[in-house]
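Record 1 of the preview.
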Amino acid sequence: MIPAWSYSSIKTFEQCPKKYYHLKVAKDVKDEGSTATIYGTELHTAAENFIKEGTPIPARFAFLQPVLDSLVRIEGEKKCEIKLGVAKRGGKFTPCDFFAKDVWWRGIADLLIINEAKQQAYLVDYKTSKNAKYADTKQLDLLAGAVFTHFPKVMEIKSALLFVVSNEMVKKEHEHIMRSSYMNVMEPELIRLEAAMKNDVWNANSGPLCKFCPVTSCTHNRGK
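->
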């Protein structure tokens, strides 16, 4: 049985099973992050503080102001960095606490706006990559499926990956009736992960990001 997973953990497994093993299974390596991840964390915090408290945007993130102003104007209850957990009980997807013992999937929505009167929601995930070239809406599918699970009155969701640096937005719309299919969107990847765990085979993949990998014991890590 695979441990509780997230979109990012599955992407780590796809990138390199060996890296996933050390970070998520053996847990003998910790990813301390990079300059890029620190920048992303600070940007997310600035956006959250502005939307929740009206805290002025730091000068270095001034380019966020127009888009955050437009998000604030959307009618509905705004939830920032909301943690969502989903369990599989009796074959059905069920809402659960983020740290529940039987949590199956975990995800964090950067911004969720709930308008129960209209049975609608808006879902936004901020991206700090240079452009939307490699945008993957499966992340939005998973988050939408979780929102439908936790907020059953919501019938439709307008979601978007917001690439703040390049000012691009990758949009998608989700319907309540499709909620289960959204939660199953990464089933092929989960099957491969389950096979790796069953057979205890964690082959390393070689690529240009190896030199940045925290698994310094790997022979492919050229940053040692």
